[in-house]
Amino acid sequence: MAIVLGPNQYGKAEVRVVAVDRSTPQHSLVDLNVSSALRGDFSAAHLTGDNAHVLTTDAQKNTVFAFARDGISSPEAFGLRLATHFAGSYDWISGARVELESYGWDRIAVGGAPHDHAFRRAGGEVRTAVVTADGDDLHVVAGLTDLVVLKSTGSEFWGFPRDAYTTLAETRERILATAVTARWRYVGSDLDWHATYDTVRTTMLEAFASTHSLALQQTLFAMGTAVLETVPEVAEVRLSMPNKHHFLQDLTAFGLDNPDVVYHADDRPYGLIEGTVLRDDVAPAEVAWQGTPGFV
Ligand SMILES: O=c1[nH]c(=O)c2[nH]c(=O)[nH]c2[nH]1
What we know:
purine metabolism; two-stranded antiparallel sheet; 296 residues; globular; Urate Oxidase; single chain; EC 1.7.3.3; binds uric acid; 12 strands; 2 domains; oxidoreductase; eight-stranded antiparallel β-sheet; urate oxidase activity; alpha+beta
């Protein structure tokens, strides 16, 4: 029996970088959380503490700030620049994974006009990107987290089996609410990242709204399908959608009826519906997802 080093990667996690564009009186800013991880032959550092192959995590952090000096056009483009730089920097580095979160800032309206240099953090939703350089291959997975949506009708749930522990009543009318976490993998690494992101996000929202839902699972598949039908550059969509239950509150103790008016928004437990929707003619690329924890 021998004990050997298995797969490994290392880098700097959660570099918080804010880049301000002051080139016109109307400033704009990009606010990112960037994590880099290098892959390659780092066995000596692990086995003997020989750091000759270790491009320091401190240098990786510095690279993020230095590259930001040139401006950040999009999380995807910035991630591609970093990943190709790291993967090409030494011959023992075979690849790099760069994960980015992008926090939105909206202009504060003053007297109804958008202010030039005062901003309000946009809602809880976060745009994400994961760029992986694997040898000469580049993979871009874009995404979002915490896109919270609700439908006040157009959702039913019935027809499920009733075992000894099933107490849930069938319903033809319920609130459907979820916080979408989605990641989608692009084929190609030279897209209009902002426009494509906006199209995917809008398509998911429209599919959520317009699908008459018989299950959150059906809504998930409809959302993924709509994205693949609308954006040919997307190869697969992975979705994680908690079922944010809204239970009709019993008001009979107060002599009141409740004809689908008053609900208890329960925060936990929640159903967790997760799935992948993909084209069957596109080659899988598991390396694009390596290091991304959880279902998506
Ligand atoms: O859309 C739903 N899917 C389920 O799998 C499920 N299970 C449950 O209790 N309620 C729901 N709703």
